[in-house]
Protein backbone atom coordinates (compact mmCIF):
# COMPACT_ATOMS: atom_id res chain seq x y z
CA UNK A 1 0.00 0.00 0.00
CA UNK A 2 1.42 3.31 -1.02
CA UNK A 3 1.14 6.76 0.49
CA UNK A 4 -1.32 8.19 -2.04
CA UNK A 5 -3.85 5.43 -1.29
CA UNK A 6 -3.41 6.13 2.41
CA UNK A 7 -3.92 9.85 1.80
CA UNK A 8 -7.13 9.06 -0.10
CA UNK A 9 -8.46 7.04 2.82
CA UNK A 10 -7.60 9.73 5.34
CA UNK A 11 -9.34 12.25 3.10
CA UNK A 12 -12.44 10.04 3.17
CA UNK A 13 -12.43 9.97 6.96
CA UNK A 14 -12.01 13.72 7.23
CA UNK A 15 -14.85 14.34 4.78
CA UNK A 16 -17.19 11.99 6.64
CA UNK A 17 -16.39 13.70 9.90
CA UNK A 18 -17.54 16.90 8.23
CA UNK A 19 -14.32 18.81 8.90
CA UNK A 20 -13.93 22.13 7.17
CA UNK A 21 -10.47 23.61 7.78
CA UNK A 22 -10.28 27.35 7.12
CA UNK A 23 -6.71 27.92 5.96
CA UNK A 24 -5.72 24.75 4.14
CA UNK A 25 -7.30 22.46 1.65
CA UNK A 26 -8.63 19.19 3.08
CA UNK A 27 -6.60 17.32 0.49
CA UNK A 28 -3.32 18.86 1.71
CA UNK A 29 -4.06 18.03 5.32
CA UNK A 30 -4.84 14.45 4.37
CA UNK A 31 -1.57 14.20 2.48
CA UNK A 32 0.36 15.67 5.42
CA UNK A 33 -1.24 13.17 7.80
CA UNK A 34 -0.44 10.36 5.43
CA UNK A 35 3.24 11.39 5.43
CA UNK A 36 3.46 11.52 9.20
CA UNK A 37 1.61 8.22 9.78
CA UNK A 38 2.49 6.56 6.57
CA UNK A 39 5.75 4.87 7.35
CA UNK A 40 4.38 2.81 10.21
CA UNK A 41 1.05 1.85 8.63
CA UNK A 42 2.52 0.77 5.31
CA UNK A 43 4.77 -1.66 7.19
CA UNK A 44 1.84 -3.55 8.74
CA UNK A 45 0.67 -4.71 5.31
CA UNK A 46 -3.12 -4.55 5.65
CA UNK A 47 -4.70 -4.65 2.19
CA UNK A 48 -6.32 -1.37 1.09
CA UNK A 49 -9.80 -2.95 0.70
CA UNK A 50 -9.80 -3.98 4.38
CA UNK A 51 -8.73 -0.51 5.46
CA UNK A 52 -11.36 1.03 3.22
CA UNK A 53 -14.05 -1.11 4.86
CA UNK A 54 -13.14 0.02 8.37
CA UNK A 55 -12.75 3.62 7.26
CA UNK A 56 -16.34 3.55 6.03
CA UNK A 57 -17.49 2.11 9.35
CA UNK A 58 -15.69 4.80 11.34
CA UNK A 59 -16.42 7.67 9.00
CA UNK A 60 -20.20 7.54 8.86
CA UNK A 61 -21.56 9.23 11.89
CA UNK A 62 -24.70 7.46 12.99
CA UNK A 63 -27.48 9.66 14.15
CA UNK A 64 -29.95 7.83 16.36
CA UNK A 65 -33.37 8.67 15.03
CA UNK A 66 -36.39 8.87 17.25
CA UNK A 67 -38.39 5.70 17.21
CA UNK A 68 -42.16 5.61 17.47
CA UNK A 69 -43.93 3.88 20.33
CA UNK A 70 -46.00 0.76 19.77
CA UNK A 71 -49.60 1.55 18.77
CA UNK A 72 -50.90 -1.53 20.60
CA UNK A 73 -49.20 -1.41 23.99
CA UNK A 74 -47.52 2.01 23.92
CA UNK A 75 -44.17 0.49 24.79
CA UNK A 76 -40.96 2.19 23.63
CA UNK A 77 -38.98 -1.04 23.36
CA UNK A 78 -39.18 -0.91 19.60
CA UNK A 79 -36.66 -2.19 17.08
CA UNK A 80 -36.32 -1.61 13.35
CA UNK A 81 -37.67 -4.43 11.26
CA UNK A 82 -36.82 -3.91 7.60
CA UNK A 83 -38.72 -1.70 5.22
CA UNK A 84 -41.46 -1.85 2.64
CA UNK A 85 -41.97 0.58 -0.25
CA UNK A 86 -39.29 2.86 1.17
CA UNK A 87 -40.89 3.16 4.59
CA UNK A 88 -39.22 1.82 7.71
CA UNK A 89 -41.04 -0.89 9.60
CA UNK A 90 -40.77 -1.37 13.34
CA UNK A 91 -41.43 -4.25 15.66
CA UNK A 92 -42.46 -4.08 19.30
CA UNK A 93 -40.30 -6.28 21.54
CA UNK A 94 -43.04 -6.53 24.15
CA UNK A 95 -46.11 -7.62 22.19
CA UNK A 96 -44.47 -8.52 18.86
CA UNK A 97 -46.58 -6.21 16.71
CA UNK A 98 -45.09 -4.99 13.42
CA UNK A 99 -46.05 -1.48 12.35
CA UNK A 100 -45.10 1.60 10.36
CA UNK A 101 -44.52 5.01 11.83
CA UNK A 102 -48.15 5.34 12.81
CA UNK A 103 -48.31 9.11 13.05
CA UNK A 104 -48.25 9.34 9.27
CA UNK A 105 -51.04 6.81 8.77
CA UNK A 106 -53.94 8.62 10.33
CA UNK A 107 -56.78 8.69 7.86
CA UNK A 108 -59.48 11.31 7.99
CA UNK A 109 -63.17 10.58 7.60
CA UNK A 110 -63.19 11.57 3.94
CA UNK A 111 -60.43 9.13 3.05
CA UNK A 112 -62.03 6.31 5.03
CA UNK A 113 -65.29 6.88 3.19
CA UNK A 114 -63.52 6.98 -0.18
CA UNK A 115 -61.71 3.72 0.55
CA UNK A 116 -64.95 1.98 1.46
CA UNK A 117 -66.62 3.28 -1.70
CA UNK A 118 -63.72 1.99 -3.78
CA UNK A 119 -64.05 -1.36 -2.04
CA UNK A 120 -67.75 -1.50 -2.86
CA UNK A 121 -67.14 -0.66 -6.50
CA UNK A 122 -65.28 -3.78 -7.40
CA UNK A 123 -61.79 -2.76 -6.42
CA UNK A 124 -59.79 -5.42 -4.67
CA UNK A 125 -58.05 -4.55 -1.40
CA UNK A 126 -54.66 -4.80 -3.10
CA UNK A 127 -55.78 -2.37 -5.80
CA UNK A 128 -56.97 0.12 -3.17
CA UNK A 129 -53.68 -0.26 -1.32
CA UNK A 130 -51.78 0.61 -4.49
CA UNK A 131 -54.00 3.57 -5.41
CA UNK A 132 -54.22 5.08 -1.93
CA UNK A 133 -50.60 4.41 -1.03
CA UNK A 134 -51.59 2.71 2.21
CA UNK A 135 -50.42 -0.67 3.44
CA UNK A 136 -52.69 -3.61 2.66
CA UNK A 137 -53.15 -4.31 6.36
CA UNK A 138 -54.52 -0.81 6.91
CA UNK A 139 -57.14 -1.29 4.19
CA UNK A 140 -57.99 -4.75 5.48
CA UNK A 141 -58.44 -3.65 9.08
CA UNK A 142 -60.55 -0.66 8.02
CA UNK A 143 -62.91 -2.81 5.94
CA UNK A 144 -63.06 -5.41 8.71
CA UNK A 145 -63.73 -2.88 11.46
CA UNK A 146 -66.47 -0.94 9.64
CA UNK A 147 -67.82 -4.20 8.16
CA UNK A 148 -68.24 -5.73 11.62
CA UNK A 149 -70.08 -2.61 12.73
CA UNK A 150 -72.35 -2.74 9.67
CA UNK A 151 -72.99 -6.45 10.17
CA UNK A 152 -74.06 -6.12 13.81
CA UNK A 153 -76.25 -3.08 13.06
CA UNK A 154 -77.99 -5.06 10.31
CA UNK A 155 -78.62 -7.98 12.66
CA UNK A 156 -80.34 -5.64 15.11
CA UNK A 157 -82.40 -4.09 12.29
CA UNK A 158 -83.45 -7.53 11.02
CA UNK A 159 -84.59 -8.47 14.51
CA UNK A 160 -86.92 -5.47 14.45
CA UNK A 161 -88.25 -6.37 10.99
CA UNK A 162 -89.34 -9.82 12.11
CA UNK A 163 -92.67 -8.60 13.46
CA UNK A 164 -93.81 -7.41 9.99
CA UNK A 165 -95.64 -9.44 7.37
CA UNK A 166 -94.27 -9.48 3.84
CA UNK A 167 -96.49 -9.81 0.75
CA UNK A 168 -94.08 -12.15 -1.01
CA UNK A 169 -90.63 -13.64 -0.52
CA UNK A 170 -88.28 -14.86 -3.24
CA UNK A 171 -85.55 -17.41 -2.46
CA UNK A 172 -82.35 -18.27 -4.21
CA UNK A 173 -78.83 -19.39 -3.42
CA UNK A 174 -75.67 -18.40 -5.20
CA UNK A 175 -72.24 -19.86 -5.18
CA UNK A 176 -68.79 -18.57 -4.42
CA UNK A 177 -65.67 -20.17 -2.97
CA UNK A 178 -63.17 -19.78 -0.16
CA UNK A 179 -59.36 -19.54 -0.17
CA UNK A 180 -58.29 -20.20 -3.79
CA UNK A 181 -59.89 -20.33 -7.24
CA UNK A 182 -58.56 -23.70 -8.29
CA UNK A 183 -57.09 -26.65 -6.47
CA UNK A 184 -57.70 -29.02 -3.61
CA UNK A 185 -57.98 -26.50 -0.79
CA UNK A 186 -60.85 -24.66 -2.45
CA UNK A 187 -64.01 -24.74 -0.39
CA UNK A 188 -67.43 -23.92 -1.75
CA UNK A 189 -69.51 -21.28 -0.06
CA UNK A 190 -73.19 -20.84 -0.74
CA UNK A 191 -74.91 -17.56 -0.04
CA UNK A 192 -78.61 -18.05 0.53
CA UNK A 193 -80.68 -15.03 -0.26
CA UNK A 194 -84.28 -14.19 0.47
CA UNK A 195 -85.95 -11.01 -0.73
CA UNK A 196 -88.99 -10.19 1.41
CA UNK A 197 -90.79 -7.39 -0.40
CA UNK A 198 -87.40 -6.63 -1.92
CA UNK A 199 -85.54 -6.47 1.40
CA UNK A 200 -82.46 -8.72 1.23
CA UNK A 201 -81.70 -11.31 3.92
CA UNK A 202 -78.62 -13.51 3.84
CA UNK A 203 -77.15 -16.62 5.31
CA UNK A 204 -73.92 -18.22 4.17
CA UNK A 205 -72.66 -21.76 4.58
CA UNK A 206 -73.09 -25.06 2.72
CA UNK A 207 -75.96 -25.96 0.42
CA UNK A 208 -77.87 -28.00 2.98
CA UNK A 209 -81.05 -27.60 4.96
CA UNK A 210 -79.07 -26.52 8.03
CA UNK A 211 -78.05 -23.23 6.44
CA UNK A 212 -81.50 -22.70 4.97
CA UNK A 213 -83.11 -23.13 8.38
CA UNK A 214 -80.88 -20.37 9.79
CA UNK A 215 -82.05 -18.09 6.99
CA UNK A 216 -85.68 -18.95 7.74
CA UNK A 217 -85.25 -17.92 11.36
CA UNK A 218 -84.51 -14.36 10.21
CA UNK A 219 -87.43 -13.90 7.88
CA UNK A 220 -90.71 -12.13 8.61
CA UNK A 221 -93.85 -14.11 7.76
CA UNK A 222 -94.75 -14.04 4.11
CA UNK A 223 -97.91 -14.34 1.99
CA UNK A 224 -96.34 -16.26 -0.89
CA UNK A 225 -92.93 -17.92 -1.25
CA UNK A 226 -91.37 -18.10 -4.71
CA UNK A 227 -88.55 -20.60 -5.12
CA UNK A 228 -86.84 -22.68 -7.78
CA UNK A 229 -87.11 -26.47 -7.87
CA UNK A 230 -84.34 -27.20 -5.38
CA UNK A 231 -85.63 -29.86 -2.97
CA UNK A 232 -84.79 -28.07 0.29
CA UNK A 233 -87.55 -25.54 -0.36
CA UNK A 234 -90.23 -28.22 0.04
CA UNK A 235 -90.51 -27.37 3.74
CA UNK A 236 -92.08 -24.00 2.89
CA UNK A 237 -95.85 -23.70 2.80
CA UNK A 238 -97.61 -21.35 0.36
CA UNK A 239 -94.81 -22.17 -2.05
CA UNK A 240 -94.72 -21.54 -5.79
CA UNK A 241 -91.83 -23.35 -7.47
CA UNK A 242 -91.05 -21.75 -10.78
CA UNK A 243 -88.04 -20.12 -12.38
CA UNK A 244 -90.41 -17.41 -13.63
CA UNK A 245 -90.52 -15.60 -10.31
CA UNK A 246 -86.90 -15.89 -9.24
CA UNK A 247 -85.58 -13.49 -11.87
CA UNK A 248 -85.63 -10.71 -9.27
CA UNK A 249 -83.06 -12.56 -7.15
CA UNK A 250 -80.88 -13.01 -10.20
CA UNK A 251 -80.75 -9.25 -10.59
CA UNK A 252 -79.80 -9.01 -6.93
CA UNK A 253 -77.03 -11.59 -7.36
CA UNK A 254 -75.59 -9.86 -10.37
CA UNK A 255 -75.61 -6.58 -8.42
CA UNK A 256 -73.57 -8.22 -5.65
CA UNK A 257 -71.12 -9.66 -8.16
CA UNK A 258 -70.69 -6.34 -9.93
CA UNK A 259 -70.08 -4.40 -6.71
CA UNK A 260 -67.72 -6.73 -4.85
CA UNK A 261 -64.50 -7.95 -6.42
CA UNK A 262 -64.49 -10.97 -4.10
CA UNK A 263 -67.74 -12.28 -5.60
CA UNK A 264 -66.97 -11.43 -9.22
CA UNK A 265 -66.26 -14.21 -11.68
CA UNK A 266 -63.25 -12.93 -13.58
CA UNK A 267 -60.88 -11.46 -11.00
CA UNK A 268 -57.92 -12.61 -8.98
CA UNK A 269 -59.58 -11.46 -5.77
CA UNK A 270 -60.56 -14.33 -3.48
CA UNK A 271 -62.46 -14.79 -0.26
CA UNK A 272 -60.22 -15.72 2.63
CA UNK A 273 -62.93 -16.10 5.20
CA UNK A 274 -66.67 -16.53 5.41
CA UNK A 275 -66.86 -13.73 7.94
CA UNK A 276 -65.44 -11.17 5.50
CA UNK A 277 -68.05 -12.21 2.89
CA UNK A 278 -70.78 -11.47 5.42
CA UNK A 279 -69.21 -8.17 6.44
CA UNK A 280 -68.83 -7.11 2.81
CA UNK A 281 -72.46 -7.89 1.97
CA UNK A 282 -73.57 -5.91 5.03
CA UNK A 283 -71.39 -2.97 3.98
CA UNK A 284 -72.81 -3.08 0.46
CA UNK A 285 -76.38 -3.04 1.74
CA UNK A 286 -75.75 -0.10 4.01
CA UNK A 287 -73.55 2.06 1.80
CA UNK A 288 -75.70 1.49 -1.30
CA UNK A 289 -79.20 0.71 0.00
CA UNK A 290 -81.55 -0.77 -2.55
CA UNK A 291 -84.91 -2.49 -2.34
CA UNK A 292 -85.65 -5.01 -5.08
CA UNK A 293 -89.30 -4.23 -5.39
CA UNK A 294 -91.35 -1.70 -7.32
CA UNK A 295 -94.08 -1.23 -4.75
CA UNK A 296 -93.63 0.35 -1.33
CA UNK A 297 -94.77 -1.76 1.61
CA UNK A 298 -94.48 -1.07 5.37
CA UNK A 299 -91.67 -3.64 5.56
CA UNK A 300 -89.32 -2.10 2.99
CA UNK A 301 -90.20 1.45 4.08
CA UNK A 302 -89.07 0.74 7.65
CA UNK A 303 -86.02 -1.09 6.30
CA UNK A 304 -84.86 1.90 4.26
CA UNK A 305 -85.37 4.24 7.22
CA UNK A 306 -83.34 1.93 9.48
CA UNK A 307 -80.57 1.68 6.89
CA UNK A 308 -80.43 5.45 6.57
CA UNK A 309 -79.97 5.74 10.34
CA UNK A 310 -77.17 3.14 10.35
CA UNK A 311 -75.51 4.84 7.37
CA UNK A 312 -75.39 8.20 9.16
CA UNK A 313 -73.54 6.70 12.13
CA UNK A 314 -71.35 4.20 10.30
CA UNK A 315 -68.02 5.89 9.52
ZN1 LIG B 1 -46.36 -3.48 21.70
Question: What are the SSEs and their pairings?
Answer:
Elements: H1 3-16, H2 26-44, H3 48-59, E1 78-84, E2 87-92, E3 98-100, H4 109-119, H5 125-132, H6 136-161, E4 165-178, E5 187-196, E6 199-205, H7 209-218, E7 221-227, E8 239-241, H8 247-259, H9 274-287, H10 298-312
Parallel strand pairs: 4-7, 7-8
Antiparallel strand pairs: 1-2, 2-3, 4-5, 5-6
Bound molecules: zinc ion (ZN).
Please explain how this structure is put together.
The chain has 315 residues and is α/β, with parallel strands linked by helices. The chain has three domains: 3-59; 65-105, N-terminal domain of TfIIb; 136-312, Nucleotidyltransferase, domain 5, CATH 3.30.420. 45% of the residues lie in helices and 18% in strands. The protein is built from ten helices and eight strands. The strands form two sheets. The protein has a five-stranded mixed sheet, with helices on both faces. Strand 2 and strand 3 (98-100) form a beta hairpin. It starts with a helix and ends with a helix. The model has no long low-confidence stretch (mean pLDDT 83). It binds zinc ion (ZN).
Total separate domains = 3
Distance between the termini: 69 Å
* Annotated CATH architecture of the largest domain: 2-Layer Sandwich
**Strand portion, in percent?**
15-25%
Q: What name does the CATH topology of the largest domain carry? A: Nucleotidyltransferase, domain 5
The major beta sheet can be summarized as:
5 strands, mixed
Can you tell me the CATH class of the largest domain? Alpha Beta
